[in-house]
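The instructor's notes for this session suggest beginning with a concrete chain rather than abstract definitions. Hand out the sequence below and ask the class to guess, before any prediction is shown, which regions might be ordered.
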Amino acid sequence: MYMILSLFFVFIIAFVNAYPLCNDINEQHKYFENERQLFNIHESQSPFDADFLFDTTRFQVASCMDNNGEIYYPAETSCAYISNNTHLELQKPTYRFPLFDSFIWKLTDTMWYLSGWTKIIENGEHYWYYPNKTSNKTIFFLHGINAVNGFENILLLRKLTREATVYFSIYSPVLYFDTNYEYNNTYSQHIVNVASFIKQHKTDDTDIIGNSYGSIRLTTLCKRFPELCDKMSHIILTDPLNVNLPFSKMFDACLYGVFFIHSEKTPIYRKSITINTLRLQRQYTHMYENMDWYEWSIDTDMMKRFSHNMVLVIGNYDKFIVIDRESPAMKLCRVIYTDTQHGMVIFSDFMEQIYNTCPN
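After discussion, reveal the predicted structure:
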């Protein structure tokens, strides 16, 4: 069944509209309504509580396509739109004193080097690199909301280096500890830079892995550079918080755990380490300025386009990813479920399942 779907969608790729049209609220509503139905979301559910809205415009797509076919990014992002069009009061970010941050970065840098990795700096982006001279396979890894420098992923990365040359992309705006270097690239520049880096270093057999928040980076990259992702052997999204993002548990958690107050939801969400990390100044600012209901969302357009190589890996006990597994949308690409909680998928055998078993 999986292979039949894959072949079917290869023929309709050319007819998939990559971005909803700008200034066309009917098309935007149609897009969201289509996503709601395909993911089996109840009609009463919307990206935020409709009672808070000033008008009947329930959705606002931050990124869209103008009449000339160019992608347009309005200055008012998704979070700003909600703040400006609802009765919800925007909360201020929290702060932490970076007492030992520089020392911790130097320490983890040393640990990377002692583990055999080499640092590459290109266009202001930092990467860790581990060559495998006996393999033609290449893997690019985009990390999630890690504490520092991405070293938390070293166990998985060691497994990957046995099979491939590995590049690990560091993205400091979502790391807990402040970096010991200045990083000035915007999110958009970062995506362009990573895409360029992958084009330069990819081989005929290349995978890209995006973990947790890294799945958001990978989603944006594939929507902006679909031809590049088409050529990948696998696009692997582990702990993908952004499945059907506007209707997702993670979006609700960000909305009422990070940016706004909800009498019932906020006290629950703020027990989460992830949510409290996102409330910090740097992470808060990044999410507020860049969250995009379309470019950040693993939607059915993306699942159709990359049905031939995309794999979602979701933990059975992930409280941030709530989906209907039997929905039509979740049948559009390959999905692997592991007996893990959020953040623990990378310690499972998902790579063995991807490489050693055939999809159903």
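Then share the key points. DSSP finds 14 helices and ten strands in the chain. Residues 196 and 294 are 22 Å apart (CA to CA).
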